[in-house]
């Protein structure tokens, strides 16, 4: 269902494009303006003021958030450390496309370990070989991926 305001905006946009097509039928389609001055002004208004440029790195922003809510990120890292994650170890992360992937990445980084991302669409043999080569103490995976490559211990979360 489209709101009345959205429908009106779509109709105005269509009218603008059709007017430009009909006013110069010899013009290439790629050269026809598709955004009206009025729409550009709306976009500029939405983007005011322009966002300030941050001097912090991404990991600096994450660290700042961690300082505000340390319990949120530390929920995963201690479990990983308890299972052997530490500097010098690699932790395979096995997730389908999921918001939990970034949570797992940050948890592994906070534990001091490194990570490698695995794709559950890979053949089982490839996953097992990769996990064997990494020789990590555990694998972090989503519930969907729990039955895939067997390792000493896996931490399942998300869903």
TrEMBL record:
<keyword id="KW-0812">Transmembrane</keyword>
<keyword id="KW-0472">Membrane</keyword>
<feature type="transmembrane region" description="Helical">
    <location>
        <begin position="100"/>
        <end position="118"/>
    </location>
</feature>
<dbReference type="GO" id="GO:0031177">
    <property type="term" value="F:phosphopantetheine binding"/>
</dbReference>
<dbReference type="GO" id="GO:0005737">
    <property type="term" value="C:cytoplasm"/>
</dbReference>
<keyword id="KW-1133">Transmembrane helix</keyword>
<dbReference type="GO" id="GO:0044550">
    <property type="term" value="P:secondary metabolite biosynthetic process"/>
</dbReference>
<protein>
    <submittedName>
        <fullName>Uncharacterized protein</fullName>
    </submittedName>
</protein>
<dbReference type="GO" id="GO:0043041">
    <property type="term" value="P:amino acid activation for nonribosomal peptide biosynthetic process"/>
</dbReference>
